[in-house]
Amino acid sequence: MEFLPLRTLPAAPRQQSTSNPHSRHFHSFRHPLFIKHPAAITHIHFCPTKPHRYAVTSSTRVLIYAPKTGKVVKTITRFKDTARGGEFRKDGKLVVAGGDDGVVQVFDVNSRAILRAMKEHNQPVRVTHFSPHLPQILSASDDTTVKLWDLSTQACLSTFSSHTDYVRSAIFSASDPSLILSASYDSTIRLHDVRLPEDDANVITMRHGGAPVEDILAFPSGGVAVSVGGPILRVWDLAMAGKCVRALSNHQKTVTSVAFDGTKGRVLTGGLDNMVKVYDVEDWKVVHTMRYPAPVLSLAVSPDDTHIAAGMTDGTLSVRRRDPKASELGASSAQETAIKGGAYEYFADMEAIFGTGHIKAKGKDLGPVVGPADEFRVETRRQKRLRDFDKYLKSFKYSAALDAGLHKNVKPTTSFALIQELVHRDALRIALSGRDDVTLEPILNFLTKNVTDPRFGEMAAQVVGIIIDIYTPILGQSPILDEMLGKIQIGVERELSFQRELMKLRGALDITLSQAVLGRVEA
């Protein structure tokens, strides 16, 4: 007859989780990385294109990190004063940043050379952005102005001067590059249309309620914006002339930053209360909260939704990472790879997608190449390896099987399944017999831990009874055996005492509930 490996006892049913899917998603970010910098981290930006490197602005530097390794791959230090707002261009080849010297600079990422320097601001430039569609740059400064620059000529195309205090955030509309949103410490959010004359460009003004506005965010549709300032997050309907449709106060202190997650279905806010709150954009309820060791100044999420980066006032950079699900990887591969012919160019192009193996042509290494997901692969059936206790059971070495099944790396459900199998074979007494103090001690230790477990208590008590029956002649002669059996007795007595107390409590609760029911009936 063919030997059947041991089957593990069914584990206790898991309690139904009360957490929502959003919370479970953010709990999957399980690889926190903490990197210390000498100064506060004022801005973080992920590159829109893969591999989604991220630029961290701190002190007089913009550091570019690799997401897989968490290591610095480039450092831009060409600043005369504190750097501000370092951001990638869409293709990841250029970085723009402002500074406390009032200069807006554009850098080549590979060479770190300064390609452009725009100097019309006369106070610190806090915000810089590349236009998502046009060769333009947006900047905002403490001089209360927002400027639009032509990247190719360095010329200032427009200056918006409607704010009366420091401008701390400015962004392009995702749906229309002609629309610009800006937010200021004058407690206003303003929508500008660059197609209009500068004096008439401010088409909508929204008031945040008296608190300085720290950051703003625009939805991809362009019809909704979010602003944060003080402890309040506000949601604005731009299609209704900037009507405030939500005002939420879930932070205890000032909210400093706001960002989308990778799906654009959730909004994250970071604040000086050391908290990051996650909102579901469907109902604007907080679905998850993350605590950080210091006040949060900057926040960003990678476009592929696998990294959450937060910068803090004490210079700590926290990067939380999750491994993408197989379904996400499959969807990504399906989008990036199409069925092509077996041409040489096809395999040469696979470098950007796959990462193992190399091909060469004319002496040149063309990079890593692997076949696509729809290739045929020869699968081999691997025979399941028997575990140690299964091998001993197969050869009828019951004592050795029991010792292997009680190893610390074996789960209790598996250990008791082994004991059950030994009982079924009438071999448990054989496995327990002929032992000395040293070989009995692991068994008694295991029983001490599990004799009060409701799943295994009855079976553990039977094993203890067999041990006492076998080793009664030497009880009182072995200090180790006496001590271990004494521990089991104490554990059982404590469990019985606890169960008696629970029965008393149950009786008291029954009386209380009965009186409550009678009171309702009489009423």
Automatic annotation (TrEMBL):
Region of interest: Disordered: 1-25
CDD domains: WD40
Domain of life: Eukaryota
A Pfam entry, by short name: UTP15_C
Keyword terms: Nucleus, Repeat, rRNA processing, WD repeat
Keyword Phosphoprotein in annotation: no
Domain U3 small nucleolar RNA-associated protein 15 C-terminal: 372-511
GO biological process, one term: positive regulation of transcription by RNA polymerase I
Keyword Nucleus: yes
GO cellular component, one term: nucleolus
Subcellular location: Nucleus, Nucleolus
Start-end of each WD repeat: 118-159, 160-195, 248-289
Broad class of where this protein is predominantly found: nucleus
Protein name: U3 small nucleolar RNA-associated protein 15
SUPFAM superfamilies, per the entry: WD40 repeat-like
